[in-house]
Amino acid sequence: MNVLVIPEDFRKDQYMLKPLIEALMRSAGRKKARVRVCRDPLLGGVSQALKWSRLEEIIVRYKGMIDVFLLCVDRDGITERRKSLDHLETKATQFLPEHKYFLAENAWQELEVWVLAGQKDLPGDWNWQDIRQERDPKEAYFIPFSHSRDLVNEPGEGRRTLAREAAGNFTRVLRLCPELNHLRDRLQALITT
After folding, report:
1. How far apart are CA 3 and CA 120, in angstroms?
2. In the chain, how many domains are there?
C-alpha cells in the first residue's frame, strides 16, 4: 500500500508526519505500507491545502502510484475545519477511481501536539488538556520543549527527533489524541473492504 501524506507545508511538517503516519499505518494493520510526504507541489499553508483545485492537482499527478491520499492539517482553533475536510473527502471520493482513497484529518490544534503526545519527559507542571486547548501550542509548548532538549538547531527545529520518539510511543499518542484514533479506525475500515 502506497500512502501520500499531504501537509499544509512540507518544509517542517514532513519531519513529523512521515514517522507518525508510518506508526499509524502499522497500528492500522499495514506494517509494510510505504509512506511518503508530498513535496511537489509545495502548498505553503492551510488555505492552499484546503483548496480543492490544489488537491485535485496532487491527486491527478499521483493517483497512478498512490492508494491512499492523506491530508493532514492544523485545526488552528477553527471549529468549522472538520466540515471543510469532510467536504474535501466527499469531492475526492467522487473523483478517485475505485480502490483509491482520500482521507483528511486535523490535528488538535497543531501537528506538533501529536509529537508532544508521544513524549515521556514533558515538564511536570504542564497539563495535557491545556496543551490540547492552546490555540498556538507550537509557540507555547513545542518550541520551548525543543529548546529544553537542545534540538532546535536540527532539521525541523526538533521535529525530526521528537516525532521519531513519538512514533516509538504511538500507543500513548493514540490515547491522548482521539482524532488519530478516529483516523486509524477509518483507515482500517477502508483497508478491510
Report:
1. 28
2. 1
Segments forming the whole domain that contains residue 170: 2-192
- Note down pLDDT in tens along the chain; length 193 residues: 999 999 999 999 999 999 999 999 999 999 999 999 999 999 999 999 999 999 999 999 999 999 999 999 999 999 999 999 999 999 999 999 889 999 999 999 999 999 999 999 999 999 999 999 999 999 999 999 999 999 999 989 999 999 999 999 999 999 999 999 999 999 999 877 5
- The CB-side HSE value for 181 (13 A sphere, CA atoms) comes to 9
pTM: 0.95
| DSSP string for residues in 31-50 | TT-EEEE--SS---SHHHHT
SS3 state at 32:
coil
Q: What is the CATH number of the domain that holds 96?
A: 3.40.50
* 191 vs 67: CA distance, rounded Å: 10
